[in-house]
User: What shape does this take?
Amino acid sequence: MPDNINGTATNTDAQSERPRVAPYGSWDSPIGTHMLVSGAVGISEVVPDGHGVFWAESRPLEAGRVAIMHHENGHTREVTPPKANVRTLMHEYGGGAWWANDNTLWYCDYDDQRLRELSIENQNAKAYAAIKKTEPRLLSAAPESPRAQRFADMRPTPDQHWIIAVCEQHKEPPKEQSKAQFSEPQNLITAIARDGSFTQIDLATGADFYGSICLSPDGSRIAWVQWDHPNMPWDTTTLMCADIVCTKSTIALNNIQSVAGGHEESVIQPLFCPIGQLHFLSDRDDSWHLYKESQDTPVLSVDGEIGYPPWVHGFARYAFKDNGEVVAAHFKNGVEHLDLKPDDTAFNSVRSSGSRIAFTSASWRSEASVFYDGKCVRKARDLGLSEAYLAEPEVLEFPTGAADAPDTAHALYFAPANPDFIAPEDEKPPLIVLAHGGPTSAARSQLSLAQRFWTSRGFAVVDVNYRGSSGYGRAYRNKLNGQWGVADVQDCVAVAQYLADRGDVDKQRLIIRGGSAGGFTVLSALALHNTFTAGASLYGVADLEALATDTHKFESRYLDSLIGRWPEDKDVYAARSPINHLEGFSAPMIVLQGAEDTIVPPNQSRMIVDALDERGLPVAYLEFEGEQHGFRKSDTIVTATLSELAFYGRVFGFKPAGPAIDLEIRNQ
Assistant: This one.
């Protein structure tokens, strides 16, 4: 589908012409869907290795392919092969799919999940850009079935003979057994020989999950985090440490012991300082602060918290300089902070090599850039937008909760922003309430063009950090325990009413939108409340029983804390499932779904759409081939965004700028 919302307004127009009067939602904008995908690159993990710095780039125009980039001596190049897609399916969400050290790269390719090694020659400035990279070498053996063995958090031993990694091993169920009857995948820590022999030696087994492998500077010690069902890694984890004994042909762990963690303490991101002392983040005092082994008081406390729930492998929130100084990013009131970049608001992958610090940095007005050794080595793209389109949000703290149990929740509010337009005097803007995924996650504290697409067209947007969100400490996170589908919904309803009562938005045009767990919040709000007049669910959960019995290992017991134990609390699951409250739906809805989603399978979305269709409610449904949990392909992103805009235009009676979009809305 061509992008016909490219916009005709320009920054020059905004300066030379008076704003035009037009209804909210109909404003033309330079922030078109082309800007969401063309030149858009998702920058994630950053790894300095002493010679330069590596980082990962995901590219919507290449079907979401992830490439590894390298910068050295003022020159940047892609080092992975043109068709390589660096992604691991560990825990289905992935992360930690690669590592680099001393000009050597190890990575997992999405197609087969096998571990590869690639040498990156140390080039001088003149030859750097012209040198062709060598071909990667396979280190892990082909599994019995495709993608049956997955790796993450890989680290080389100092003797250069082994790669230690977290491993997840899958087996196909025998023909006489169903998927539900078959045992879960096995998670473990393993070592893979670097000599190409495909030798693999298991080092630690028995726990349900492992993550965050790190080695001491001299390579004599290893640390990792492990946890068991029904915990998630932000509930209860244990920090383990051991001595490494290895030769060219053998490797083993000795003196394995627990260092920290245990009952209702989440320990994450262990890291050895330059002199070999083991440090870690712990929420034992409510917020994730920095501790070290054999010391009960924090090494570093901040006004907020440093840690973030490890949904994926590869998180890095702090690092050490070679003099022992700590550099750490932290959250405060829903916004991130880092002393090295005081004007920016979002940071990722804070790592070091000697005295050189690397990280990604973004702000309300710019996408992520890569910084290394005090310099920007990968600039965010120049969007060519006036700051008038990119105003900072208002940080909200608003009342919520039941009448007999009042409480407080948080949000980021973005008012409509387009210097070329104003609305008629008697009109207020429609509001999009964003329910983030997770649900143990948080609203993003950086520029999101996907949000500014809406605000530049005359929509108000509020990104809700409902109770249960991260960044506010363990007690706030735990407020969603047993209350998913209740507290999060109350908070989304409350913030919409708060903004409507304050006079910011049109109470007749309140939209709720969310993906994954946020999609469940959307469906629950529409089924159980009449506040919202339209909704958008992206791969949202409709049936909690189906989710409890048909999901992947990482989240298979997540609902124990959010809802209750299955099947003991089956009645609670039924009562909370939107599919069982069809009589409560009265608002039009658009549903977007990936056809290959294994986390929230398509049948979840199809069930709710079919049920709404049978009831005669306006509903639009788009299912995208080749997409999983979250949309990566440029065509999908464009089609989904334009269809959603067209849907709101049809529902609320305004005409979006640009040619009409062909969208089927049933029962309208």
Q: What stands out?
A: Residues 1-16, 124-131 have pLDDT under 50 and may be disordered. Residues 11-37+385-652 form a domain with the Rossmann fold fold (CATH 3.40.50.1820).
